[in-house]
Amino acid sequence: SDPDPIRLGFNPSSRGAGYTFGSDVVARFLHANELLHVLRAHQLCMEGYQVLFENSLSTVWSAPNYCYRCGNMACVLEVDVTLDFFFNVFGPAPASERDTLNLKLQPEEPQYFL
Question: Which of these, 60, 93, 94, 58, lies nearest to 76 by C-alpha position?
């Protein structure tokens, strides 16, 4: 399910699977569970993160340039002991750095294959 910044309640998702939920659903959930905020992931956010419903719900996305074609930013969220949020936004590594990193991550071929 994904948040819907316009409609209230639960509604069928336009993606054809699951539902969307509105600010009223989040407010009821937070109240019933004595929580202040919902932190969620796994929904593409072009800016790397999204905050909705008067700062009661945040979504983070941690895969920059998803599938090498979306052109999106990514984010890692830090929450400190006072519950302040810091959204660390980043983009993909340049191709030249990815190639170097991939070479470093390749395991050496075991001697028994030589």
Answer: 60
| Residue position matching structure tokens 């030249």 | 96
In the chain, % helix, strand, coil (3-state, to 5) comes to 25, 30, 50
Distance CA 57, CA 25 (A): 11
Statement: the pTM of the whole predicted model exceeds 0.70: yes
Tokens of 30: 């937070």
Q: Is 3 helix (H, G, I), strand (E, B) or coil?
A: strand
What is the per-residue pLDDT across 25-47, written as a single tens digit (0 to 9) for each? 999 999 999 999 999 998 899 99
50: which strand partners? 59
Torsion angle in degrees (nearest 10) through CA of 39, 42, 46, 51:
-20
